Amino acid sequence: MLINFPYIKRDTPIHRMDVRAKLLLLITFGVAAAQTSNFWLILAFFVIAVFYYQQCHLRWHETKSAWRLIIVLNVMLILANFFLTGGQVVRGVDTGPEHIIAYIPFLGFLAHTPFIGLVPLPLSVESSVFLLTQTLRNFAIALIAVSLPYTTNPGHIAPGFKGLGLPDWVAYAMDLSFRFLPSVGRDFGTTLDAQRARGFELDKLRGGIAGKIMRLAP
């Protein structure tokens, strides 16, 4: 399903905020959250972001498609970072003795033939806290970012970027982006419904690759 961020008109404090204030908040909040890996500071950022998002009065069924994508991407990024760094909090930096919880078998390089095999990947208290810190940071920034398109009238986007002193082409490009995504989403939904009405199986395709292609063929 195509992910889009349609504007939802409501009378809330966030809806009434100037779009320039929202943009500056998103930029400063993201930069500030990226400057630290301290768990307690990130937790404070997360609490602030949750409170801010609650003021938008957005319902789950209105934003679930966007949040599903964000959750999947966040989990993939966190796990990929953990495995690629070998379970270290900071790769290549000695952060002192770690409190190992368990060792996870993972595919890695060996010093002998066949040179590739299962190696123990340490899961420590420090790495677990670091993973949780990264997760909270990403979700905190996402809470601020997701609220922007849902609470901002598309007609105010271009003046907002222009009011920040950005060039006209930047303001125009962002304005088109905010207007284009909801339109594409509506067109995609209409096309999908039409294909279902014609009997095309688009959601649950059975069989192998050849069978799926045959079912998608007109």
UniProtKB/TrEMBL annotation:
Sorted UniProt keywords: Membrane, Transmembrane, Transmembrane helix
Membrane topology annotation: Multi-pass membrane protein
CDD domains assigned: EcfT (cd16914)
Annotated InterPro entries: ABC/ECF_trnsptr_transmembrane
GO cellular component, one term: plasma membrane
Chain ranges passing through the membrane: 23-53, 65-84, 100-123, 129-150
Superkingdom, natural source: Bacteria
Subcellular location: Membrane
PANTHER family hit by this protein: PROTEIN ABCI12, CHLOROPLASTIC
Name used for this protein in its record: Uncharacterized protein
Species of provenance: Ktedonospora formicarum
